[in-house]
Amino acid sequence: MKNKFHSMRRVRIATLITVNFCSARLFAQANSEATNAPMKLSPPYGELPPTFWEQNASSISLAGLLLAALAAFALWLFFRPKPKIIIPPEVQAREALRELRRQLEDGAVLSRVSQVTRDYFIAAFQLAAGELTTTEFNRELAGCEKIHPELSAAAAEFLRDCDARKFSTTAGPAKLDAANRALNLVEQAEQRRARLRQLAETQTPGPRR
Fold it and tell me: Which of 16, 52, 123, 168 has a CB 3.0–4.6 Å from the CB of 89, allowing a cystine?
């Protein structure tokens, strides 16, 4: 029995040795073939296409320059000084006097009407501006050759009436109707200015032929 066991053990050992030997031979043969076989190169990649920036660099740069120019122009338009709008003196005087005509004629309104009348004559006939008394201003009116004597006398009388009424301590019998009287003076002065422009045009020599 013991001999039989030893015999079977020997058979198993011989079988394992045989299997290991065959496996080693097969592995050696496979490794030798894999090592000695010529290397196969993969097919080459195709040419890489150009990137988006490479394709559109010029267009993007041009668009950026245009946007920067538009932004600069918009900022210039926004921050540039606004042109001063010059309103003719007769327009300013008429608007102010028509507004004052709707108000109660008290000392403040009379003072405002008087100041509007002065400002109009100063701008319309280039009179000396400054803090002048009514007497001094009336003297300027009388000394201006552009203003007709009747117009200067009417304007001086109106300004004296405004002073007398606004500095008076007693109420007058009726209101002065200062705003309407001032508007009438402006209309007379505008007629005078139109007449002066016509005279200047007739005295200007025409182009030589």
Answer: 123
